[in-house]
Amino acid sequence: MPGPKGPGSFNAFLGWWGRYPVTQFVVFIGLLAIFWIMGSNTIETMHRLGITPGFGFLHQSANFAIGESLIAYAPSDTFARAVLAGLLNTIAIALSGCVLATVLGVSLGIARLSGNFLLAGLVRWYVEVVRNTPLLLQLFFWSAVTHAFPAPRQAINPFGVIYLSNRGISIPSLQLHDIPASAIALSMAIVLTVVCLARLRAGKRTGAIGFLSISFFVLLGVSLVFHLSGAQANIDVPALHGFNITGGLNLTPEFAALLIGLVVNSSATIAEIVRSGIQSVPAGQWESARSLGLQPGKIMRLVILPQALRVIIPLMTSSYLDLTKNSSLAVAIGFPDLVSVLNTTANQSGQVLEALAIIVVSYLTLNLAVSAIMNRYNQRIESRGFSLR
Amino acid sequence: MNSSVDALATKMKWRQIWQNWLDGLFGTPLNTLITVFVVALLFWTVPSLFRWLFLNATWTGSAKDCALNTGACWAFIGAKLRFILFALYPPELDWRPSLVICLLALLLVITGTPKFWSRHLVYLWIGTVVLIWMLMAGTLVGPRVPTGRWGGLALTLLISVVGFACAFPLAVLLALARRSKMGGLRTLSILFIEIVRGVPMIAILYVAMLLVPMMLPLGFSPEALIRAQIGLTLFVAAYLAEVVRAGLQSVPHGQAEAASALGFGYWRIVRLIILPQALRAVIPALVNLAIGIVLNSTLVAVIGIFDLLNAAKNAANDPIWLGFYDESYIFVGLIYFTLCYSASRYSLWLEARLRASK
Description:
The structure holds 2 protein chains of 2 kinds.
Chain A: H1 7-17, H2 21-48, H3 79-112, H4 117-131, H5 135-147, E1 163-165, E2 168-171, E3 173-177, H6 181-200, H7 207-228, E4 232-236, E5 239-241, E6 244-246, E7 249-251, H8 253-279, H9 283-291, H10 296-326, H11 330-333, H12 338-349, H13 352-381
Antiparallel strand pairs in A: 1-2, 2-7, 3-4, 5-6
Helix pairs in contact in A: 3-4, 3-8, 3-12, 4-8, 5-8, 6-7, 8-10, 9-10, 10-13, 12-13
Chain B: H1 2-26, H2 29-55, H3 63-68, H4 74-86, H5 95-112, H6 120-137, H7 152-179, H8 183-198, H9 201-215, H10 224-250, H11 253-261, H12 266-281, H13 283-296, H14 308-315, H15 325-357
């Protein structure tokens, strides 16, 4: 043990620790004792069942199949790889869910404020029904729907490019090949330059719309570079061949059901957030902007949205976090997400404590990551400049 | 004379409403386009839905009658109503879950009436929760029924209300600890709240189902429902603590300072001065949280407990009535919707009332 710390830091600690130091200490010791007893009981139970405590089991062969995975996985692979496959599935569903829920939710929120009675009323009932019924019930419903699609030969084929069948949902996908290294280097250079330029003028505000338009031009530049360099990009449209649908991107019925369920559920929340955010801007802001002679589009872009976003973004963050956590309901409809894989792992290996520890740590990390990103964005749009305080 | 003025005013009012509707539907070309699209969408979906729900539906009879018809099979709901409401509870004792549902409804109505808001509510809640639990278990009268056979609507309401009631004292303590100047307790409270709020509820239910039996000494393991109830309670407590904390923050410092100057001790200040004001400030948030609990209580279905949703799912697994999932889900969806929608309307009404009384 290193020598005693200076009296200053110990006193600082005592000050932080606060009143009733002994009682607090006893509470701490009591909790530790409870945890210790529970821990030793758990280890005793594991020994009785012939299980070795610890994470060594992750290197053993998992011996169970996973319905779908972004990485190559076979039952003979290790538990660690199975957990990784589950984690990637969770991240995939959370990312695509957040993006789609934002698009749908913002559109619904704007539709709610559109001034068209019929559309606003329809959206209002959509929101009420979705928000007042259990998510699990909605997932059961979507699972029943995606499993009730007809066989591939009779697949429902809306817009001619999407196929809905009992093998899942096939959508067109973008495929790139023959990309020369120079094109990759050049596009990275473009992105870096834009990022550096944005850094240089960090003092000035870019705002959400500016950010979006810059991203659009960067994307345009990069695709131009790719096109000129002779890289092949084509859109792979799914098509019916014999008894099956080939090509495109195939979403399994389970993935599709989970994605639709989560997107529909979160979009209702996001629609409400967007509506309340825009309505939270005082009417005087509209009026004064109009009296300055601004066009309606500009009023929205320059006056209303920047203020509404301050209300919207923190609430969006918590609804993204909810979506990520809710994706764990995958276990109820048979999609192999992180929780579902670890549940199977716990049942197969008996390593319940370790499996649950992985779940808790993974979700806390995911949550921290989402909050960190959203907090950074929040700082960018926070109110700044003139203030009377 | 007067009546003609009234008539004119009414006419003007109606003309105004008519004009509003006209603007709302056909005000601009874009608006007209949207209206046409929405009407087309409704024409495309509503008639077939209406036919399935009502016109072609089978209202009485057996599964064979349903198979002959193309619409919904509401006869299934009639045959399975008892199972959906009470699940595996012994049929000869149906009066118990029925009485529990009535008692809980009464408790909620009394709690929701501002006239009855006083400290007596606390005793009422404790009394009702103990009473309904003993009633279901059969401690007071008649044969005992193990918790494994409880189920249906009665179970959903029971675990939601018991979860809320048991989480409340815990949440108040957590919120107080999180705002206290005692670093040790504050750290513990923050750790608990943030960890529980950071993980999905299903993970907490798995801890209750899989890990808790391993943590307790051999031969001592509470029944599954009790473990799930404890898991649900801890989960609710973390979220409730944040709502209570928001309430505590809304009470001005002067209140505690004035009470302290009058010689009140910490607990008396909290009990008599702070909490009544803090809780009053967050009543709408409490109602919204209660809605969330009812909706989230369905997750116990994943660990095999027969709540309302799981009972509905299993009703359609019956070999005689196999596969009427749509009807089953629509029916329980309607029950959940009625409960939660009325609660959210109540919350809005209360918010307006509280704002008016300020």
